[in-house]
Design goal:
Residues 1-23 form the signal peptide. The protein is of the alpha/beta class. Helix content is 36%, strand content 12%. The longest helix has 18 residues, at 116-133.
């Protein structure tokens, strides 16, 4: 798969040659906009930690909000805010829009739910298409894994939504960051006890790791601890995963991350 991307890398040699003082110039300014649900949002997801990984010249805007799906993010006018930003992007060499949904598109989420085939997949593709139409670079992100175990094995509750995201990215020739696959592998390798340390709060009231029913129920009331949202440790871990996927999919983005 190939992507048509904006030329944003300034070589060190060119920078030195164009700088009277001989000091390397920073790359041309870019902007990154985060669009998604609570697993990317401030206070419960990895989005702010990802923004913190960029160098100071990058304008990173976290517009992800808890409880949103591919339908409600648009219906509430939040996507219109993204479009407004894209129309006003002349100050930036490129604007990358990272889009991640799935958790609230699942059945059991009331009006937030979307049909996997006729709703979720087309919605993700439409976000990518509209981003390109306004001069942005769409970057689709597969949903962050829930850390729900059954015994010693992680229960994958978001696999079909991850696959639908992959297909939407292929359809629109958009960059894809497979956070789902990466987070599934990492959390399974950790096991339930270590995975619990990634949560927002300690698991004092959580079921025992040996409990075969240690699975988060979609739509159930949330306490301070759950198997979906992340605290600082989890945010840092998953932000690094997104960074690795981002730089692999779009190598020209690497100079914009702190080394």
């Amino acid at each position: 798969m190939t992507f048509r991307l904006f030329p944003v890398v300034v070589s060190l040699a060119a920078a030195l040659a164009g700088s009277p003082s001989g000091a390397a110039e920073l790359p041309q300014p870019i902007r990154v906009i985060l669009v998604g649900d609570s697993t990317m949002a401030s206070g419960s997801g990895y989005g702010d930690a990802l923004c913190a990984r960029f160098v100071a010249s990058v304008k990173c805007i976290n517009l992800a909000r808890g409880g949103r799906s591919t339908s409600t993010f648009r219906n509430e006018g939040r996507w219109a805010d993204v479009e407004t930003l894209l129309r006003d992007g002349s100050a930036f060499d490129a604007t990358y829009v990272l889009i991640q949904f799935g958790h609230n598109d699942q059945p059991g989420k009331g009006e937030r739910s979307t049909d996997l085939v006729t709703g979720f997949g087309p919605n993700m593709a439409r976000y990518a298409s509209e981003t390109k139409a306004l001069g942005g670079v769409p970057v689709l992100v597969t949903p962050l894994a829930r850390r729900s175990f059954k015994g010693a094995y992680l229960k994958d509750t978001l696999g079909p939504w991850a696959e639908a995201t992959r297909k939407a990215a292929a359809r629109e020739n958009a960059a894809l960051l497979d956070l789902h696959a990466d987070s599934i592998a990492a959390v399974q390798a950790m096991g339930p006890n270590e995975a619990d340390t990634l949560a927002v709060a300690p698991p004092e009231s959580a079921p025992s790791p040996a409990d075969p029913n240690r699975v988060e129920v979609v739509g159930a009331p949330k306490g301070a601890f759950d198997y979906t949202h992340v605290g600082p440790k989890g945010a840092a871990l998953f932000a690094r995963m997104v960074e690795a996927e981002f730089t692999a999919a779009i190598p020209s983005i690497k100079p914009y991350f702190k080394q």
